[in-house]
Recover the amino acids of this structure.
């Protein structure tokens, strides 16, 4: 029986839209692809999520590959949540409903150590019983160890958990760890049906 629902953050609880963040900045249009590639598409971005590099070092490495005029833009994009933090439509209501049904709610996210600075701004964050942030554990989804860390830290049984993530590789990792789940593509009606099919009595459309 499913008793715990585990959520990813980006493109699940909130929209994650690098192109929009870049457009929030006062930079020339021809500079936008450079920023997307050298910030969001960089190895340093992944290392920040793993917690194997600090923000200052990451910013310096990114800026070194870009024109000097974009140094400030790099710093701004590393704090993207200050540019835009857009909640996923319908998610707060679902979280509240799940909590009312007695489900435990947990976050499992590839994110930097700075997540606590903005997580409370996400609608529905108050319903969460715990969170595992990749940078805090030097692990990344879909590594098996990060799922095991979630189960161990909160005393969860994998067979009683259901994972919602926007990437199929992370759901496959969850399945390998014994946790059911579904790939979320923004379709809230479909997600509700998936939860209901898993035995969670949420309302469906």
């Amino acid at each position: 029986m499913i008793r715990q629902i585990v959520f990813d953050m980006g493109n699940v609880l909130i929209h994650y839209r690098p192109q929009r963040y870049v457009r929030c900045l006062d930079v020339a249009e021809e500079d936008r692809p450079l920023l997307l590639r050298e910030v969001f598409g960089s190895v340093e971005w992944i290392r920040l999520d793993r917690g194997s590099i600090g923000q200052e070092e990451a910013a310096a490495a990114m800026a070194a590959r870009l024109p000097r005029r974009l140094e400030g833009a790099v710093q701004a994009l590393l704090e993207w949540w200050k540019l835009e933090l857009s909640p996923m439509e319908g998610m707060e209501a679902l979280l509240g409903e799940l909590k009312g049904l007695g489900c435990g709610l947990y976050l499992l996210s590839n994110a930097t150590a700075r997540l606590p600075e903005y997580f409370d701004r996400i609608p529905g964050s108050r319903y969460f019983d715990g969170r595992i942030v990749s940078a805090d554990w030097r692990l990344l989804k879909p590594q098996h160890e990060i799922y095991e860390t979630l189960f161990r830290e909160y005393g969860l049984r994998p067979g009683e958990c259901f994972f919602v993530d926007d990437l199929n590789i992370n759901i496959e990792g969850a399945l390998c760890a014994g946790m059911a789940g579904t790939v979320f593509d923004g379709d809230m009606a479909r997600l509700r049906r998936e939860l209901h099919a898993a035995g969670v009595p949420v309302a469906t459309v």
In short: The two ends are 22 Å apart (CA to CA). The chain has a mean pLDDT of 97. The chain is about 40% helix and 10% strand. The first strand starts at residue 4 and ends at 7.
